[in-house]
Task: inverse folding
């Protein structure tokens, strides 16, 4: 049976991506999810099965000063905050998981902001 909806197709792309991108204790995975209203980012250690850090446009430090949580400006702020928290926690290198989304728009803005704020990937 062929996937019909956008969500099903994104899920298939994400599964294909996850076969190659695996987070370890030394290099955890920076996972990004984008909805129409919000942007979410998590740093995950897949070996232990734990989420080490998470930030979204719903977080208190990001929400202040934002008009809409689903645009590129919000994604940049999420990228800056997650990178700052990761560097404070001693995480400098991550592998990027775009979640089946195109590396474009909000996803690219989050990644570039995280790179500028000190994360390496």
Result:
């Amino acid at each position: 049976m062929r996937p019909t909806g956008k969500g099903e197709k994104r899920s298939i792309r994400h599964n294909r991506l996850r076969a190659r991108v695996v987070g370890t204790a030394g290099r955890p995975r920076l996972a990004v999810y984008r909805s129409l209203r919000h942007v979410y980012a998590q740093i995950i250690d897949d070996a232990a099965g734990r989420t080490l850090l998470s930030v979204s446009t719903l977080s208190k430090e990001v929400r202040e000063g934002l008009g809409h949580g689903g645009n590129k400006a919000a994604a940049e702020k999420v990228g800056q905050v997650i990178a700052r928290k990761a560097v404070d926690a001693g995480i400098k290198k991550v592998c990027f998981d775009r979640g089946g989304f195109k590396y474009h728009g909000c996803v690219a803005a989050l990644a570039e902001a995280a790179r500028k704020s000190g994360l390496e990937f």
The two ends are 36 Å apart (CA to CA). The mean pLDDT is 95.
